[in-house]
Amino acid sequence: MTLSYTKIIPFFVLVLTVGTLAACAPVKKVAFEQNLNHPEDAHPAPIKFTKLKLKLPVGMEMDIYRHGCFLSFVEVGRHYLKGHINQSLIDDSFVEALDAQGYDLVSHLNLSFDEEADAESLRSEYKVSAKIIDAQINVCKTPPLFFKLPPADPLFFGKNGLSGKLFLKIEWGVWDNLRRKTVYKTTTEGYVHSKNTKIEGVTLMVNEAFAMAAHNLGAKKEFHDLIFYGTKPPQDWNKKKKRESRPRIFDPQERVVISNPPLSKVMLIDHVERTSRTEVMVQAGSGHGSGYFISSEGHIITNAHVVGDAMRVRVVTAGKEEKLIAEVLRKSVPRDVALLKLERIPEDLEIVTLPIKVEWPKVSADIYALGTPKKTRLQGTISKGIVSAHRKNFRVFGTKMDFIQGDVQTIGGNSGGPLIDAHGNLVGMSVAGMYQFSTESDSGLNLFIPIEDALKYLNIELE
C-alpha cells in the first residue's frame, strides 16, 4: 500500500504544531525593579526573613510540561512545586537580594557558633514572611534521543536535567517585633528563563524567581521607607473590610484605683486555699490562659497574648464555680499585659485580691505560680520554685523589659497567672518560658513580669 505525500505532510504539520504548542505554554515575564536611593549614612532597621510558604489553591494546575520527546508532556499541581522549595537556598537568596540594596539583614550566613546566631537573631526589629500565591511553569527535559519514549513515571526527568521558564507571585508580610503587630503587606513578582540544562533545574529556578521577587520587594517605596526611615505605610494595604465593633459596656480608659492591704506575714501554707481563689482561667477562642483578680469591682489582669484581639473573653473562677464574661478594657502588647473587667458580678461570688508587694523578691527566695497549665481541667495548679535571677533590660521577642527569672514550673496555660511569694503576696505574673521541645517539658527557665510593671503599663493606680 502506498501513502500519498499529500496525506503525510498535513499529518506531520499537525504533529509539529501540537508539539510546538505543548512546548510553549505561556509563562508571564517580569523584570527587576530599579533600586531606590538612600543616604550613605542611613541606618535601616534590622530585618529577618522567616520562611517561604505555598498558598496556591487546591487542585491548581501550573502547566508544567515534561519532554521525553517533543510530544510528551503532563500537567502537575502545587505539590510538585512544594517539593522543589529549598528553604536554605531561599533564605540565602533573600539575604543576598536585600543586602545588595543596603538593607540590614539578620542572618547566620557568616556565623560559626550557636551563641553568635542567638545574639544575631535578637537584633531583628522586623520579620518578613513570604507566600507563593500564584505560579506558572514550563520546563523541558533535554532528551538523549529525539524520539525516546517517556518513562513510566511522568514526573521522572532523568539525569539529563531541566531548563525552562518559571513565574512566581509572592505575598509579603512585615511583622513589627517591637509593637507586636503586622504593619505592612504587599505582593511582588519574579521570573526566570533558564536556557541551560541543570540537574536540579526546578529547585534552582524557584530560587532565582524568588530572588527577583525579593529584590522587587526591596525596591518598593513603602517597604523601603518603613525599614530605612520608620515611615508608616499607607493603610490601604489592609483591604479587608473591618466590621464595626460591638458596643462596649465600660470605658476602656476608665480610672482604676486599687487599695493595697498590709503585706501578709503568714506563711502561705496556712491560707493557701483562700489565696488560690484569686486565680481565674481566661478563655478566648479555642485557647486558654490564666489571670487574677486585682480589685473587688471585678478587674482582672492577664497577658495580652492570652486575649489577642478579642473584646470579650470567658472567665472561669476558682473551682469552676462561675463561668462569666469579661470585657477587655485595655492592654499593652510590648509589656504583654491586659486588663479585663467582669460584665456581671454574681452576688455570691467571693473576689479575693492579694496584697501587692512591689519590691522584687530576692534571688533564691521561694516563689509560687498559680494557673491552669496545659489542660483546662488542671485549673488551680500551684507550682513552687525559687527566684533564679533579676533580669533588667532583658530582650524577649525583640523588646527589652525587666523580668523576674525563676525555676518554678510553668507551661502553656499558665500565661497571665499570678506569681506570689512565700507569704502569699502578689509579686508578679507568668509570661514566658523555655521548654524542652522534644518532650514539651519545662526547662526551669521561666520569666515573670514584676507586678509594678503590670500596674504601670495598664495605668492602674495603687493607693
Descriptive labels:
Thrombin, subunit H; 2 domains; elongated; alpha+beta; six-stranded antiparallel barrel; 34% strand; 9 helices; Rossmann fold; single chain; 463 residues
Task: Describe the structure in your own words.
By secondary structure, this protein is α+β, with helices and mostly antiparallel strands. It has 2 domains: 22-237, 3-Layer(aba) Sandwich (Rossmann fold); 256-462, Thrombin, subunit H (Beta Barrel), CATH 2.40.10. It has helices at residues 5-23, 78-82, 87-99, 114-121, 201-218, 221-229, 272-275, 304-307, 451-457, and strands spanning 47-54, 126-141, 162-176, 181-198, 256-258, 279-284, 287-293, 299-302, 312-316, 323-332, 337-342, 366-371, 381-396, 399-406, 418-421, 426-436, 441-450, 460-462. The strands form 4 sheets. The protein has a 6-stranded antiparallel barrel. Strands 12-13-14-17-16-15 form a 6-stranded antiparallel β-barrel. A hairpin with a 2-residue loop joins strand 13 (381-396) and strand 14. Helix 3 packs parallel to helix 5. It is elongated and about 80 Å long. The relative contact order is 0.10. Mean pLDDT is 82; it is low at 7-23, 68-72, 145-159 and 436-440.
